[in-house]
Amino acid sequence: MMVNAGGRRRRGTVTVLVLMALLAVCGLVALVVDFSAVYVAKQQLQTAADAAALAGAGQLRYSANLATARAAAVSAAETNLVLGRNADLDPSVDVVIGDYNSATGEVSSAPTPERTPVVKVTVRRTQGSPDGALPLTFCRLFGVNDVDVQASAIASLDSVASPAGRAPLELVIVQDGSYSFLEEIAQAKAADQALVQLISDRAVIGDRIAAVNFCAAGWLECNFLSVPASTTAICYEIATGDYCYSTYQMNTNPDRYYGTHTGAGIDKAISLFDQYGSPTAEHVIVLVSDGMPYPVERRPLATAAADRAAAKAIRIHTVTFDQEDGGEYGIAGADAAFNASLVRNGGYAFHTPDPTKLTPILCEVGAIEVGRPHLIR
Fold this sequence. Notes:
The protein is an alpha/beta fold. It folds into 2 domains: 5-156, no CATH class; 169-375, 3-Layer(aba) Sandwich (Rossmann fold), CATH 3.40.50. Helix content is 42%, strand content 20%. The chain has 11 helices and 16 strands. It has a 6-stranded mixed beta sheet, sandwiched between helices. The protein has a 4-stranded antiparallel beta sheet with strand order 3-6-9-16. Helix 4 (185-201) packs parallel to helix 11 and helix 8 (262-276) runs parallel beside helix 9 (299-311). Mean pLDDT is 85; it is low at 159-164 and 325-331.
């Protein structure tokens, strides 16, 4: 039997084509699998870099120590996994603390006193990095054994005057002590104390806290005391403060206890800053209330007091407990809306119908004031 030479050539050609197709498919699979791994690694590297930069900046905020901030960044990065392996940094190369140039996106090797420091972290799987380049799997068949992958993040701080730390904070808690707040006043006190404790835990030299209560008038509960040295004393004054506990008190001493005179509370806080405040400190009022001013004629007085505070560069945060999501005189959130209108100079407005949320809200205010790092790149 004779075999057609042309047939053999065609079968040989088909075999070659099939082998080429299989090779192409294998190559495509290799690319898809390895590129998917690279993509996942890139995302995980970015997560680690973000966490590390934020941790470093946060530590810098609290300690004003470059070595401690660098160590915090390294520790945060190493808690993150990159393809199942803990990220590993070279602190001297991968963590940079210095000045940020917004035009170039670069960070200098050291901060200067006139500028806010930033923390830049680079998490790498590259040649020369602690973990080496990212190994590939299928691409090895084509002579490509690994690939360089890295991610960077830059975190900055809020309200920092210099690398030596943030400016001192002088904060006055202006607590509504009116009769309508009676059922929740214990939770409000606990929230005020939590705020004091948070600032105390993260204090810098010069931090001071005072407390003012108000009903129909505003009165001093605790003059400025330093934290952490006087944290216990401040919390004691808050716990034992004078509040309206009965209608009898309102009826026998209406000039002190009748209604809600928010403006009087704010003005009392302003007088503390005027008499005892430091010109180098940030001045902050935290208003905690269960409603808008009452009677109605006291509302413009509160607005005017907030304006006076703003003119003196005092920042105002407001925290409103609105049990019926409106309050006794406010409707559909009017209490919270009015108190929010008293925010000044970059403060924030919070409100909740749940008294158990007062403590986390006051702690959030404290976190804002002691400074939360944020990513800028």
